[in-house]
Amino acid sequence: MAGAPLGVFLSNAPQGARLAIARPDDPADKAIVVIELKNTVPALPTPGAVGTYELRLTVEKDDAPVILLRQPLATTEPSATLAAPERISRGQGLPVRGIGPNGEQDRVMLVKPDAPADAEGPRFFPAENVEAMLEAPDQPGVYELRYVLHAPLAEHRILARRPVRVE
Length: 167
Description:
The protein is mainly beta. Helix content is 0%, strand content 51%.
């Protein structure tokens, strides 16, 4: 799924090796995501856009990356689901569940329906826990619970919405 973390098992990787995700036709020095290896099962964020990519194992040689291994990678349309009560009293705890790609920077948040995708508000990060308690705003009105994808090539993309009335 686009935007989901990709765990990769590596054995006997060369010293200083990196993992990268790039478009198949991109040269070795161009990548969408690059991470340095810190353990044998690193996780890297996949692009948030549907497409065909390439997972690469690279090393530096003469100050330029050299591709040692490549593997095709395809991402599918990301989706998310939200669960929460339809109504809540002002200032009360709002039990929320948000399941989606669960990327490291994805968030579930409560904002006004007309707020931009990068708005601030009560939130939690589903990569840490898919359930949380958000504090309802003090102002009554209709709000929107959102699952917001934040991944390479798709920053602040709203994947799911659910209205919540604060009374």
